Amino acid sequence: MAPTAAQRSPTACAATAAVLLLLLTSCLAVAATDATTTTVATGGGTRRVLVANGLGLTPQMGWNSWNHFQGNINETIIRRTADALVATGLAKAGYTYVNLDDYWADSQRNNKGYMVANPKTFPSGIKALADYVHSKGLKLGLYSSAGTRTCSKQMPGSLGHEDTDAKTFASWGVDYLKYDNCNRDGTPETVRFPRMARALTNSGRSIFYSLCEWGNMDVAKWGGSYGNSWRTTGDITDTWTR
Ligand SMILES: *[C@@H]1O[C@H](CO)[C@@H](O)[C@H](O)[C@H]1NC(C)=O
Description:
This protein is α/β, with parallel strands linked by helices. The chain has helices spanning 10-19, 21-33, 66-69, 75-87, 125-135, 162-172, 189-201, 219-226; strands spanning 38-41, 46-49, 62-64, 97-99, 139-145, 176-180, 208-211, 229-230. It has a domain at 62-230: Alpha-Beta Barrel (TIM Barrel), CATH 3.20.20.70.
């Protein structure tokens, strides 16, 4: 979609304003009415993003628990992984995200409707884990699905609970959300994934939003408007057949 005047870069806006004070007033007015969509510079031009959190301007780097551990994660493993990222020098090289995948939460929401950490495997809770990871200079990522349950079906998904979950994640100090596409309700990805983008934008914290809808619905054409990254395939593994 071609940008309208309201979505052009703030730099152009400021330059014009320097010449004509009157125009500054109109630029500010435009900014005020366009608060949910922001234009970011990407080197080759600009693109509109809903999650204008300043993240993802270069590819994210770090670790995700799924490839090696699948569902067998616990807080000790995650803390040790954070330690290892620092000890091996990977953190210094830019591998700063420590991301939990499926299985981190208790199987049901609590009686107030909030997701909670699995009490057996993450007894200290996610906030304590985030504090630990942050103390190492790293960032903590979490996982959910745009469906009623996650892919394992062992924990709730965020469909219909986007605002609650985004605010919960923000309150714990979470820095990243991988949002999967299992156990959906039939509404298209182009509806379900933007809902979480809005919720994260309103959460009060800059949270990297990783769309994981597997390349359905031509995500390359719209993912950049709603997320900081968008996966274009199913799972990859450490096999080297191509
Ligand atoms: C975490 O998992 C590891 C590896 O399976 C295990 O040795 C350890 O006892 C577990 N710790 C907790 C707190 O569950």
